[in-house]
Amino acid sequence: MITAKEIDSRMFEQAKPGYKPEEVDEFLKEISDSFKELQAQLAEKDKKMAFLVETVKKYKQDEEDLKGALIYAQKQSREIIAEAQQKAEQIIAEANVKSDEIIGSTSVRRVREQEAFDTLRKEVSDFRTNLLEMYRDHLSLINNIPGLDEEDEEVEDTAAEPMEEVSEQPVI
Question: What is the pTM (predicted TM-score) of this model?
Fold first, then answer.
């Protein structure tokens, strides 16, 4: 490929009325070919850039979807826990009323209901932990997109903030 320095340093042999037309034509052909090659390379890089931009947009949308899903899951887990607590309290209250009528059976029922409540609490906690792990995995995939120097830092900054706010402990 011809360079700007070669263009500046190129000398043409002078003929009586001026430069030799064959040399000038040959040099102009070289310049034309070089520019065509540069334009083709630029077009290919533009295609690659457009593909990367679309990929980043898709990943950003996926990230937004994951954030929404995480917020929804947190809300649902709070509702499930509150409902489970309410249900457990109702069951325990009923068990206490029946304990006056049936001595001995109340303690067995209470233990069973508490185990059911604990099992439900563990399931909610496991669900939340798995969802957080999936969210982290997706963020890791997004952060590993090649060629995103400045945008990569922005994604890490915005991705790190929600993770700091989210506790690993179940909300009860």
Answer: 0.35
